[in-house]
């Protein structure tokens, strides 16, 4: 798949400076650019590489003026970084634009799908599944009974979507993700044995939710586990039953959220964070990596530690943590001096 400088400039609303017909077929870092590749320059620290790069085309800001000879063709735009990101999105869309049903695959009764549909080999669509337009389902995907999938959704190879789940428009579900497995619900009897509590709810992903590889989102015991629009989940995250995550919250890898916890909008949660069940976390909360959250959190708090403290308080306390051996020695010396003074009396 090749694109000329003129075609790329048209996509980005940019201006070509150099050979408008030169073509590229791959992407590269500016310092590793080679013939036929496209790169970009956004960080001034990398400016020197534009004079040595062998990339055929380089996206730059409009105010960039070379002070020595260059061989690469320039495409000048308002914001090189944003334009390159836009191009990556366009490239991904073109790359994943497969259409048709591969064989073998299984399609159950009363299944409906829209235009531009792709179903990869060895995938399984159960009964009463409803799928929108331009949905791409890659090989070895399982979709259970009565699942609804909106428009422009991508489900990568090996993902599993259990029955009754609802997937909104523009969602991306990566390989190995499991949507709608049973919540962790068991009740002990008088013998100390556990009986399973039926998990009869579902999972709802609103529009433009991204689910990372190996992430699991459990169905509700009753009602729904809900990820509101724009939520972004990294790889290997556990979302328990009846959790609700607010709009545009982003969560990094290996975080675990216990049942029935409510998380607000625009939160940022670092990797390996542990959050207990049945609490409420406000809007715009920031939680540093490896923190443990065991209480309700108000809007706009920034937290670190386990159990988590206010971020500023944690950093002040950490100064003392590092100096504990010195402080202990100092206290021991003071005690010896006091004891020595008392012995002289």
Automatic annotation (TrEMBL):
Q: Which PANTHER family match?
A: UDP-3-O-ACYLGLUCOSAMINE N-ACYLTRANSFERASE, UDP-3-O-ACYLGLUCOSAMINE N-ACYLTRANSFERASE 1, MITOCHONDRIAL-RELATED
Instruction: Answer yes or no on keyword Acyltransferase.
Output: yes
Transmembrane helix keyword on record: no
Keywords assigned = Acyltransferase, Lipid A biosynthesis, Lipid biosynthesis, Lipid metabolism, Repeat, Transferase
Give the InterPro entries listed for this entry: Hexapep (IPR001451), LpxD (IPR007691), Trimer_LpxA-like_sf (IPR011004), UDP_GlcNAc_AcTrfase_non-rep (IPR020573)
GO molecular function: any one? UDP-3-O-[(3R)-3-hydroxyacyl]-glucosamine N-acyltransferase activity
Spell out the SUPFAM superfamilies in the cross-references: Trimeric LpxA-like enzymes
What pathway does the UniProt record associate with this protein? Answer: Bacterial outer membrane biogenesis; LPS lipid A biosynthesis
**Name used for this protein in its record:** UDP-3-O-acylglucosamine N-acyltransferase
